Amino acid sequence: MTSAPLAARLTHVAGPLFFPVTAYGPDGGVDLDAFRAHVRAGIDGGAAAVFACCGTGEFHALTPEEFRLVVAAAVEETAGEVPVVAGAGYGTALAIQYAKLAEEAGADGLLAMPPYLVFADQEGLLAHYTALAAATSLETIVYQRDNAVFTPETVVALARTPGVIGLKDGYGDLDLMQRIVSAVRTELPGTDFLYFNGLPTAELTGLAYRGIGVTLYSSAVFAFAPDIALAFHRALDSGDDEFANALLDHFYRPLVELRAKGRGYAVSLVKAAVRLEGHAVGEVRTPLTEPSAAHIEELARIIERGRAVLEKYGQARTAPEKPAA
What we know:
Elements: H1 6-11, E1 17-18, H2 32-44, E2 49-52, H3 64-78, E3 84-88, H4 92-105, E4 109-112, H5 122-134, E5 139-144, H6 152-160, E6 164-169, H7 174-187, E7 194-197, H8 206-210, E8 216-219, H9 226-238, H10 241-259, H11 265-276, H12 293-312
Parallel strand pairs: 1-2, 1-8, 2-3, 3-4, 4-5, 5-6, 6-7, 7-8
């Protein structure tokens, strides 16, 4: 765990937020060495933060002990270079258990994912996240998606909650997000509450979210193509719309359209891409399934086209070379 507050370290970042996959060995168990190598490649590739054991990292598939070991491995590998944020989810009691394990493992913060299965009212959701934030000293980012969608009034209450530093939006309603940003700005002037675009391929909506002031985003692409993800991040920051749109047209849109062809592809397709790049991270755990061979071939072509765009615009490869298989 680093000494600087997480909120301060995430307010202005120079690269994408990295959500590594969790590596499994041939026996199906967690492979910590492969995971550390994957994390190291992301840090060397320019990651601004490591979000371990979150959605892309198959939080749902990990036992508490596996979760603790993977978060600790991320903390050890980053060695304070960038902050480490760990996922926490399920019902309140289990979410608190995972939060405490993350704190013990040395994480800098939590990404609080939606409660398991139930659709709660706003009062119940607020009580859940308030209890989770109070359970540890870790700063908490609340993840809005699926069965955890908030009114602007609830987000104002979350922003007032000690330990809650931001909202990650995976719901994708820009009208709602604009009203949330406006409400927090009005009710809590001067607050440093953070907002994140957390849609599955956030780059596709990056320009739209920036229009309402949301510049931080999670990048699943960074897990397998940090050179493409970092180049796109730079294009957004510099206002290079021509280059950004070229990547959107020839890489990100085709990737999203491929992702839509299979259930669970927001995770399994990313993990397949990490393997294509030479990292032996294993397959996804059930109930997720692997992409078809035809879809993996299409994925390889999409990555190749993305790198062709980098070449066309004179963007040097910034990620490390592929590790030896």
